[in-house]
Amino acid sequence: MLNENHQFHEKLAQQYDEQGYFVIRDYFSENEIAALRKVILTFHHAWKKDHATFYREEAFNSSLITGSQYLSTTDRLKLFNFISSKKLMKIIDLLIPDSPSFMNTQLFFNPVNPQLKDFWHRDCQYDHDIEGQKLAIQETQVVHLRVPLFDELGMELVPETHKRWDNEEEHNVRQEENGRTSNEPLSLGKKIKLSAGDLLVFSADMIHRGLYGLDRLALDILVFDPAGDFVDYVDDDCLPTAAMLENISDGRIYQNTLNLKNKSSNKDDINLVLV
Predict the structure, then answer these.
(1) Integer Cα distance of 36 and 45 in angstroms
(2) What does the CA dihedral 159, 254, 62, 204 come to, rounded to 10 degrees?
(3) CATH at residue 201
(4) Count of domains in the chain?
(5) Which residues pair with 63 in a beta bridge?
(6) CA distances (Å), origin 193, targets 34, 125, 159
């Protein structure tokens, strides 16, 4: 059995390395999803009320789910313990074996505004120009772990683009050049329908898009390789306090981020002294 598990995880690691993604069906039990769904819906209902106009006109996702604004300490602890549960840490350690670090959470849902269409993108395009994007897909490692809370149409991915640059069609569609739009089909796109309990793992920098429809509500957990310069993206309020860490079964990914933040803060202090 141990050998079978080892082979299974080796196969997952190989597929991620070659294709940029993998999916595990029925990874979570009905009880696990029901408990998670209860916490997430508490956040979602409060967030929608607080962002009514934005939700109605522009929104298709929210972020900072683990923060203190909409969840109680008890619910935050439930969420932190789910994110760093044995099931998820097995996958995280598989892909980022050296000090994996927690970045953020996002919640994806169907937009209310029918004019909003599902669009192709690489996450890195929001921080870098074209040359920076080409560099990012070679040097950085940010992993999305998507947990659908209801059955949904899922994701569409372009395999291998976590390591290779856009072909002409992909570039024109993603960048909306030469008369193309970012919601058009791509020849090499692969649709992956998801059900509650599945786990989809994919590279943040591959070409991808969420597919709107059905009862779409999916929690994304973002984890990064500390070799990448991502600590500034982490909101302090979304990390557990020292007291909360004592009640988290495996707090490594949070502690690793806190350590990076402390290093960054100390470095800034030294630079101020030198100036």
Answers:
(1) 14
(2) -20
(3) 2.60.120.620
(4) 1
(5) 106
(6) 20, 25, 15
